[in-house]
Amino acid sequence: MSQVNITLPDGSIRTFPSAVKGIEIAQSISEGLARNALAIEVNGEIWDLSRSIHQDAAIRIFTWNDKGGKYAFWHSSAHLLAEALEALYPGVKFGIGPPIESGFYYDVDLGDRAFGEEDLLAVEKKMAELAKANNAFQRSEVSKAEAIGYFTQKQDPYKVELLNDLADGSITFYKQGTFTDLCRGPHIPHTGLIKAIKLTNVAGAYWRGNEKNKMLTRIYGITFPKQKELEEYIHLLEEAKKRDHRKLGKDLELFAFSEKVGMG
User: Fold this and answer.
1) Which of helix, strand or coil describes residue 170?
2) What is the pLDDT of residue 90?
């Protein structure tokens, strides 16, 4: 059996059978690391823990404490949001749903249906319900023709447009539960790791940032592996708002004072 040399962050090299998975490397280091692992960096690129490694590589296992771990966690959360929206709003069409600095968003076309802040709670509840199903994020490589056929049949024109710009042989789908998306990854092992969910905002966004295109609904959110961390995040936001209000109040007082001075 062929083998691969895996270089760990401390510079040590371990030998594994070819096609070893990231999760297996994490398990060989420690059970605790395997339990907390979310993704793996392979030669500078973030991968799912379930992907096989077929050549020598420098790796790093990412947990929630790492930027790469949060990246995968929030990317998967965007897919969970999309799954919830598809369950609640049949026929919804999807643009893009990336992770961002704090959380994620998904741009969606809900047709003639209005969607506002008051709808966020119902979607949050659906996301929480779907998360508990512990569905794995499953990666599959697909041909360009197969991918275009899938999204054409699904009547998802934004995905078809994105596919037209991609090279055959570079296209992957990710599936969790009943939801399938066009996606490069990476993703966390399964939805059950997403324990705390907060959808934070709804905004408008032109498709592909072009004002000549249709205005889509952009839904922002943030998720955490523990409810306590979400509560702490909300507390920090509220404190920041209070500081902003106090600063605004002082600015207005100074403005009023300077106006009075000007009237003398």
Assistant:
1) coil
2) 95
Provide the residue range defining the domain that includes 112. Answer: 70-225
**208 within domain boundaries:** yes
Q: 108 with 213, same domain? A: yes
The model's pTM: 0.90
Angle subtended by helix axes 157-164 and 144-153, to nearest 10? 160
The whole-number pLDDT of residue 130 equals 98
Q: Which residues partner with 154 through β-bridges?
A: none
Over 172-215, what HEC string results? EEEEECCEEEECCCCCCCEHHHCCEEEEEEEEEEEHHHCCCCCE
| pLDDT for res 264 | 44
Q: What does the buried/exposed string (b/e) look like for 122-142 if buried means 16 or more CB atoms within 10 Å of the residue's CB? A: ebbebbbebbeeebbbebeeb
> Is residue 252 a part of any domain in this protein?
no
Whether residue 24 lies inside any domain: the answer is yes
Angle at 249 between CA 247 and CA 252, to 5 degrees: 110
Q: Which residues of the chain have pLDDT under 50?
A: 261-264
- Between CA 55 and CA 49 the distance in angstroms is 15
Residue that finishes a domain, picked among 11, 29, 63: 63
C-alpha closest to that of 179 among 187, 201, 205: 187
3-state secondary structure 35-59: HHCCEEEECCEEECCCCEECCCEEE
DSSP state of 167: P
Strand pairing of 57-62 and 3-7?
parallel
- pLDDT at residue number 244: 76
